[in-house]
Design a protein that fits this description.
28 helices, binds ligand C2E, single chain, Beta-Lactamase, alpha/beta, 27 strands, binds magnesium ion, CBS-domain, Alpha-Beta Plaits, eight-stranded mixed beta barrel, rod-shaped, 46% helix
Length: 715
């Protein structure tokens, strides 16, 4: 506070003002304590203090002496004069040290130019001082309060930071650079390391890690301290027991003190065991088949390349075996996917037992497997391996009570004879496999050069067949069935015909197995069934139609429904439909097939056993089957009437069939002599070129023999 602010601007008086006038003024203005005396220029020349003045005037003769005299006689001629801008505290301090007594009589305040401004008393100074002090005190109080808040804030920040570090789901630790001792570890760190904080803090790396590891950690810390930067690494924590080993991903930096000297190593770590395990699982999924746990096609391919590289360096041989399961589709379709999976697992197990330690077994997909046989000295080793696999997979499989018999076909190609590159080798093995399958399966074959051409031809058939089916180019022709006793045509067998644009008529024996392989047999067979029923419905009753059914069709769950539909659509009476099945179907022993046969017979459909004598069905076996007719294969008929064993067989079959109430049909009858002897042997029906070839329009055969003469096959 400046002096100017605490003085009172009491009007000053001139030095010639009388004592009496001053007396009256003090009386009129009781609050006025001091009056300044100024000259003509309004500059102070003296000071009159109320109490001292009144005391003088009150003395004996005082009034009489001074009433009419100028005030200059009564004033203090040397008052304290102070400039208005002076700080009150400075002024007080100054006067207190030099002339403290003068303060008691007050002081005059002047402007900068020395002109009178006001008067002040000690009291004013004291008041000012006390006001100042109280303001200071409140400042101090405010300061203290804000200091307090700041400290609370700092405390809060510190607690907050500590809580954050404590609850961070990553491990955080701090190590002193100076002595290499840990000074901090958060909660996640305790969990990850499996160590309590108390046991950790104060220890060094050497207390927890094997010597070499601790050394390298120290070296790393040292480098961080001098070079800065971040160290990013993975390690096992070691602290835990052997069992639950976790993998840690860690990052470390050095932190410096106020002057920039590295003081601590701060580390953050995460447990990445689970992530790594998931990554490993995904990695495994990309390279292994989940069902059998065998390497998949991808891994097989890369392993094959590696094997061939090595074989080239070591001048060794290697073989690729491609294995295809026979009749797997059948098991899958009839027993369901769970059984199919169980079968594949068991297949994988059996094959694993067949291979050597340097070989690799893989599942290429579906029911296709492959083996790489490495480091071969002799080709006989491959032969032995292939034979082992075929034998192992021929043994019956027990699928939860169901006995399944499959088998394996194997194609083999050998490095370096057959091909140098992996994919070429695989292709050659595939060609050999294709060959095995077309030759009847259940065997292995090595690739041979001329297979290539034949395969190309078969592939071409494949492509053309799909095309023909799509365009509806396949046709049904009908070959007459002749009742020997009555010398009448009583029905027809439907035979599939494929008029190929360039190759002419392709025989069914050539394309039906391919259709079976390609999974086209169901649509093909269904079409044939419908077409045959549709045609037969237009023939004069009771002419019958016989349709050949592939073994694969018989296994299919929807087969009976397919037949029912074909009959319903065509309006053909079930009794006029015969289905020709082969021995392989009945030998299969599949309960589903027996069920289908019984269902069909209950509907009134008849069942014929085709090509009897080419398989292994015994006569005794026939008794147990729901059959209406046995067709004796043309290989026996060809021997008639000269070959005695053929005669004996035909006679025996005809007799047994007769006993069982079945019809017998002789296939491939080409001569009158054959027909004569068949009549003698008791055969009921004949089919062959003698009677008629298969024809797109069979009805003319019926017309030729007169309208009412056609009869049922049984009579
Ligand atoms: P398959 O059922 O035994 O049919 C009789 C075969 O013998 C027919 O051959 C027929 O043309 C032939 N053949 C008939 N009479 C004589 C003869 O006097 N002498 C000679 N040498 N052969 C004769 P194709 O038409 O070539 O059929 C061959 C086989 O193809 C059939 O044998 C049958 O198993 C199968 N097949 C034909 N059509 C179909 C069909 O639609 N579905 C199925 N799954 N198989 C069929
Ligand atoms: Mg037939
Ligand atoms: Mg036949």
């Amino acid at each position: 506070m400046q002096i100017r602010d605490l003085c009172s601007p009491v009007p000053a008086i001139r030095s010639d003002v009388t004592g009496d006038a001053v007396y009256q003024r003090f009386e009129a203005e009781p609050d006025v304590m001091l009056i300044a005396v100024v000259d003509a220029d309004h500059r102070p020349i003296g000071l009159v203090e109320r109490n001292a003045f009144l005391l003088r005037m009150a003395r004996a003769y005082g009034r009489a002496l001074f009433a009419h005299r100028p005030i200059s006689l009564l004033m203090d001629p040397k008052p304290l004069i102070v400039a208005g801008e002076t700080l009150a505290s400075d002024f007080t301090a100054d006067v207190m040290s030099s002339r403290p007594a003068d303060l008691l009589s007050g002081f005059i305040v002047v402007e900068r130019d020395g002109v009178y401004a006001g008067v002040g008393a000690l009291l004013d100074l004291l008041r000012a001082a006390s006001e100042e002090r109280s303001r200071f005190a409140s400042d101090m109080f405010d300061l203290a309060r804000s200091l307090e808040t700041a400290r609370a804030q700092a405390d809060h920040n510190r607690i907050f930071t500590e809580a954050v570090i404590e609850h961070i789901p990553s491990m955080v630790w701090v190590k002193s650079i100076q002595d290499g001792r840990y000074v901090m570890l958060n909660r996640a760190g305790e969990a990850i390391l499996g160590v309590a904080r108390d046991a950790f803090i104060g220890q060094t790396s050497s207390d927890f890690f094997p010597g070499a590891v601790a050394d390298s950690l120290r070296e790393e810390d040292r480098r961080l301290a001098t070079n800065g930067g971040v160290v990013d690494f993975e390690m096992l924590p070691y602290l835990r027991g052997g069992e639950d080993q976790r993998l840690l991903h860690l990052k470390k930096i050095a932190i410096c003190d106020g002057e920039g000297h590295p003081e601590y190593i701060l580390g953050v770590g995460e447990d990445i065991t689970d992530r790594r395990q998931a990554e490993a699982r995904i990695e495994r999924m990309a390279h292994f088949d989940s069902l059998t746990d065998l390497p998949n096609r991808v891994l097989f391919g890369s392993h094959l390349e590696a094997t061939l590289d090595q074989a080239a360096r070591r001048r060794e041989r290697a073989a690729v075996l491609v294995i295809d399961l026979d009749r797997f589709k059948l098991v899958n379709d009839t027993l369901g996917h769970a059984a199919g999976d169980a079968l594949l697992t068991e297949v994988a197990q059996r094959m694993r037992a067949c291979i050597g330690p340097r070989d690799m077994l893989a599942r290429l997909g579906g029911d296709e497997f492959a083996i790489i046989q490495a480091g071969l000295a002799q080709p006989t080793e491959t032969r032995a391996l292939a034979a082992r696999v075929v034998a192992a997979l021929t043994e019956p499989f027990d699928l939860g009570g169901h006995e399944a018999r499959i088998g394996a076909s194997i194609g083999v190609a050998v490095y370096p004879e057959d091909a140098a590159a992996g994919h070429e080798l695989l292709k050659k093995a595939d060609i050999a496999l294709y060959r095995v399958k077309s030759e009847g399966r259940g065997a292995y074959r090595f690739f041979e050069r001329d297979m290539d051409d034949r395969i190309q031809a078969q592939r071409a058939v494949e492509i053309d067949l799909r095309e023909a089916m799509r365009k509806g180019e396949l046709a049904a022709h009908f070959q007459p069935l002749f009742d020997i006793a009555r010398r009448r045509i009583v029905g027809f067998e439907a035979l599939m015909r494929w008029p190929h644009p360039t190759r002419g008529w392709v025989p069914p024996a050539e394309f039906i197995p391919i259709a079976e392989d390609l999974g086209l047999i169901r649509p093909l067979g269904e079409w044939m069934l419908n077409e045959s029923c549709r045609m037969a419905a237009q023939w004069p009753e009771p002419a019958t139609v016989a349709v050949n059914i592939s073994p694969l069709q018989m296994h299919m769950a929807g087969f009976v429904a397919d037949v029912t539909r074909a009959l319903a659509h065509s309006g053909l009476a079930p009794g006029r439909l015969e289905l020709e099945i082969t021995e392989s179907v009945v030998l299969d022993n599949d309960p589903a097939i027996l069920r289908h046969l019984h269902q069909l017979r209950e509907m009134g459909v008849r069942i014929s056993l085709d090509d009897f004598g080419t398989g292994y069905a015994s006569l005794a076996y026939l008794r147990r089957l729901p059959l209406d007719k046995i067709k004796i294969d043309q290989s026996f008929i060809r021997g008639l009437p000269d070959a005695p064993d053929a005669m004996a067989i035909v006679r025996a079959v005809a007799r047994l069939a007769g006993d069982l109430g079945m019809v017998t049909t002789a296939e491939g009858v080409e001569t009158e002599a054959q027909l004569d002897v068949l009549a003698q042997l008791g055969c009921t029906q004949a089919q062959g070129f003698l009677i008629g070839h298969a024809d797109a329009d069979p009805v003319r055969h019926l017309r030729a023999q007169g309208p009412r003469q056609a009869g049922g096959i049984n009579g």
